[in-house]
Design goal:
- This protein is an alpha/beta fold.
- 32% of the residues lie in helices and 15% in strands.
- It is built from 18 helices and 20 strands.
- It has helices spanning 11-19, 29-41, 74-83, 105-109, 121-134, 174-178, 184-198, 219-229, 241-247, 252-269, 299-304, 309-328, 343-359, 367-373, 382-401, 456-467, 552-557, 612-621, and strands at residues 21-25, 45-49, 90-94, 113-116, 138-144, 147-153, 376-379, 410-412, 423-425, 444-449, 473-477, 482-485, 510-515, 520-528, 538-541, 563-567, 570-571, 588-594, 629-630, 639-644.
- The strands form 3 sheets. Strands 3-2-1-4-5-6-8-9 form an 8-stranded mixed β-sheet, with helices on both faces.
- The protein is globular, with a radius of gyration of 25 Å.
Length: 645
């Protein structure tokens, strides 16, 4: 290996590589590449952790995995494959979530360096906090199509992952799309995948069938399903959705019942998925009720109306019949291309998305809203993962040399910028944000909340856990010693349904919050607010002088403070993961990119006061796809799909 070959590295670095202990968090697209690079560079002591199992769709870009590995632990298989490069390396694999209490500060302190290859914000925030507490350098990385980013996080030297404000989390692993959707966008993406499975360019990444490898579904469910689908060689054969549909004559009733009745009942059989979720309600074609109100014929009115389940089913049937006719006119081997301006294609996606939303108790959207949310889907780029992983390991070399000031953030672009750069480095390290509610000397936030209506349970679940990314918080009312929330199971359950003001949590009071698992303490100053209609019931602001988060456009040009808001009693700072708990440690299955943003970012954050200069430079240097910024943690390792609004 490179570290053992004289002349490849200087002797001092060679020795540090051999003696360092490295933790890799995530064994997806970037994680596999990082592990390979570490082994080939001569690192001798590596540990890797990932909760996920291998799916067929991973095989096109996660090159440590092969067909025979489908259904197995990513971390364990990555270890076995990497050892084939050098059997003498010590690699320890964990098939587990990094956010469990088994991996606390003591666990992180044993490593010289932590390399993140994650897909979601909750897990990234958790690793960020533990690395800060353990004072271990963290190298964060992520990709979005052809764009990528690598940055160093070091306590007291650079900004941390949570130093800058973040947009709503929009990274959705594949089994969230296929098994446990919880937002309208999940259903829209699923519907677009279905269009391609039936009429478009088929892609294994876009399988709409229930995901039997979902780690949260339980080992028995996954193993039984995989065993049933395995051929004599032990490989999994996927059912071809298009072939089945063609054999059934693209019969709307048969397709409807298969997708929305049979598949939903199959999901219901995975009982573990519904222990903490509202189970879906299967829908059958012949059980749909006739409704008296006719659908609007005017195009504008029709696009603005939210259709009922019955009306959506009618549109579903009509669009399938029309698309079948268009598809059969094509030459053999050709396919349709989804276009939001194509009436039948758009009708199909809107109808499917709303039917699935109804089944999973998700708010339905009008055709106009669905059209605005749906965008062009771009597959993940394996070479972007490889390049990003290479930069990660080069940063690791600099950290081991003690050259932290040279570990400037690097951004990969699809096209050269004005300086003819494909790899655009920051000019300087971004210093910590002094008002960060995580890495500041005395972390504190101001919570504007409707104390008359928000309950203690909502304070815990929506504000502390979802918005502030804690795992198991304890909350005490300062000055009175009242225990509002306890991490001990059942100790304060009697408070769950009480309004905050019933426990004297009112305007001006202070809460002391502590998360033992993260070794994280936070002071929360409560300010009462009476939210207007459709306004968020709470806002969290790290700067006491700014009690309301700025709009995205303002944040692009002005100094912005870290802030997190909730809508309709839920947090915008986190969304469902593959397992539904926001702790999946792998690669993104999709990432939503919004127009007119600055740069690809693993945090999805707008610029904070510590980096405004470099942000302006990146806007000027960027062009084409590189001017779009993923609003995700994204998401991140690598993305299976990217939706561009």
């Amino acid at each position: 290996m490179a570290a053992q070959v004289a002349g490849v590295f200087e002797p001092e670095l060679q020795e540090k590589i051999s003696n360092s202990k490295i933790l890799v968090v995530g064994a997806g697209g970037i994680g596999c590449e990082i592990l390979k690079n570490l082994v080939l560079s001569g690192f001798q002591d590596i540990e890797i952790i990932d909760l996920d199992t291998i799916d067929v769709s991973n095989l096109n870009r996660q090159f440590l995995f092969h067909k025979e590995h489908v259904g197995k632990s990513k971390a364990n298989v990555a270890r076995e494959s990497a050892l084939s490069f050098n059997p003498n390396v010590k690699i320890k694999a964990y098939h587990d979530s990094i956010t469990t209490s088994n991996y606390g500060v003591g666990f992180f302190q044993q490593f010289n360096l932590v390399l993140n290859a994650l897909d979601n914000r909750a897990a990234r925030n958790h690793v960020n906090r533990l690395c800060l507490t353990a004072d271990v350098p963290l190298i964060e990385s992520g990709t979005a199509g052809y764009n990528g980013q690598v940055e160093l996080i070091k306590r007291g030297l650079t900004q941390c992952y949570e130093c800058t404000p973040k947009a709503a989390q929009k990274s959705f692993p594949g089994c969230t799309i296929r098994n446990t959707p919880s937002e309208p966008i999940h259903c829209i993406v699923w519907a677009k995948h279905l269009f391609n499975q039936l009429f478009g360019e088929s892609n294994e990444d876009e399988d709409v069938s229930p995901d039997t490898a979902d780690p949260e579904a339980g080992a028995e469910a996954g193993e039984s399903a995989l065993s049933a689908e395995a051929n004599e060689k032990g490989n999994v054969n996927r059912v071809n959705t298009r072939t089945w549909a063609q054999q059934s004559g693209y019969d709307p009733e048969k397709i409807f019942n298969k997708l929305f009745f049979d598949d939903i009942n199959y999901l219901l059989s995975m009982s573990n998925l519904w222990k903490n979720r509202t189970p879906p309600n299967p829908a059958k074609w012949d059980a749909l009720e006739e409704e008296g109100e006719a659908a609007p014929t005017d195009t504008v009115l029709r696009d603005q109306k939210v259709l009922s389940l019955t009306d959506s089913a009618k549109v579903f049937g009509e669009s399938i019949t029309a698309l079948k006719g268009d598809f059969e006119k094509l030459a053999e081997g050709d396919h349709l291309v989804w276009d939001k301006d194509d009436k039948h294609a758009m009708d199909f996606v809107a109808a499917c998305a709303n039917i699935r939303a109804q089944i999973f108790n998700i708010p339905r959207k009008s055709r106009f809203e669905v059209k605005s949310m749906a965008g062009n889907i771009i597959p993940a780029i394996a070479t972007t993962n490889a390049i990003t992983a290479g930069v990660v390991v080069m940063h690791a070399f600099r950290v081991l040399r003690g050259e932290l000031e040279k570990c400037k953030s690097v951004y990969m672009r699809l096209r050269p910028n004005a300086r003819n750069q494909l790899f655009v480095p920051d000019r300087t390290l971004n210093p910590p944000n002094p008002k960060c509610y995580v890495c500041a000397a005395k972390p504190e936030v101001t919570l504007k909340v409707d104390t008359k209506n928000v309950t203690v349970k909502e304070l815990r679940d929506d504000i502390l856990i979802k918005a502030l990314n804690m795992l198991n918080p304890d909350v005490i009312l300062d000055g009175k010693g009242t225990i509002v929330i306890s991490s001990e199971e059942g100790e304060t359950d009697c408070n769950n349904d009480k309004k905050l003001e019933q426990l004297q949590i009112v305007d001006g009071c202070i809460l002391k919050v502590d998360d033992f698992v993260q070794n994280y303490e936070l002071t929360v100053t409560v300010i009462h607010k009476d939210p207007a209609r459709d306004e968020s019931p709470f806002d969290i602001v790290a700067d006491p002088d700014s009690l309301k988060p700025k709009d995205d456009e303002d944040q692009k040009t002005d100094d912005a403070q870290p802030s997190t808001s909730g809508k309709n009693g839920t947090s915008e700072a986190s969304s469902s993961s593959a397992a539904g708990n926001g702790t999946v440690d792998d690669d993104d299955d999709m990432c939503i990119i919004e127009e007119d943003a600055e740069k690809p970012s693993t945090s999805g954050a707008v610029a904070g006061p510590s980096s405004s200069g470099s942000e302006k430079r990146k806007i000027e240097d960027s062009e084409g796809p590189s001017t779009k910024k993923p609003r995700v943690s994204n998401d991140d390792d690598d993305d299976d799909l990217i939706v561009i609004n």
